[in-house]
Amino acid sequence: MDYKTHLIVSVQNLIKTEQILFTSALNLCMFGELRKLDEAFNSSDEVVFNLELLKSVDDPNVKHLVEIIEYLQKKTQALINLNHLNENDLTNEYNF
Fold first, then answer.
1. Alpha helix positions (H), the chain
2. Residue (of 25, 19, 20, 17) closest to 54 by Cα position
3. How confident is the model at residue 46 (pLDDT cuts 50, 70, 90)?
4. What is the per-residue pLDDT for 96?
5. Based on C-alpha coordinates, what's the Rg of the chain?
6. 34 Cα distance to chain centroid
7. pLDDT computed for residue 79 by the predictor
8. What is the mean pLDDT of residues 52-77?
9. pLDDT tens string 8-34
10. SS3 of 85, please?
11. Residue 19, C-beta contacts closer than 8 angstroms, at least 6 positions apart
12. Which of 3, 14, 36, 92 could bridge to 76 as Cys pair (CB 3.0-4.6 Å)?
């Protein structure tokens, strides 16, 4: 593997980390401040959640996670731009 491949894998890992943190923050909301919203939906309902929803809650733990997510997004995008990575680069799977 070369340098660029390791760089791409690093960016992919940052994206995965962002997704994990988003899910964690959403779970905190759904078991805390947004519990009543969670109870209003059936398990078969499809609901789209985004960062704006997470920003709207008062839970300080969620707010910290949102700050980290936004920082990761900013730095991930900087790496993508700096290294001229494209969607194809980021969706490929690399095996070590």
1. 3-30, 35-40, 51-55, 60-82, 87-91
2. 25
3. confident
4. 65
5. 16
6. 19
7. 98
8. 97
9. 999 999 999 999 999 999 999 999 998
10. coil
11. none
12. 14
Dig out the tokens for 87 from the structure: 């969607």
Q: Tokens standing for 74? A: 């900013």
Q: Please answer whether residues 34 and 57 qualify as being in contact, where contact means their C-beta atoms are separated by less than 8 angstroms.
A: yes
Q: Give the tokens for residue 81.
A: 């731009």
Q: Encoding tokens for residue 34?
A: 């947004």
Q: How many residues does the chain have?
A: 96
Q: Which two tokens mark 89?
A: 């680069």
pTM for the full predicted model = 0.86
Residue type, 7: L
**Is 55 in contact with 66 (CB distance < 8 Å)?**
yes
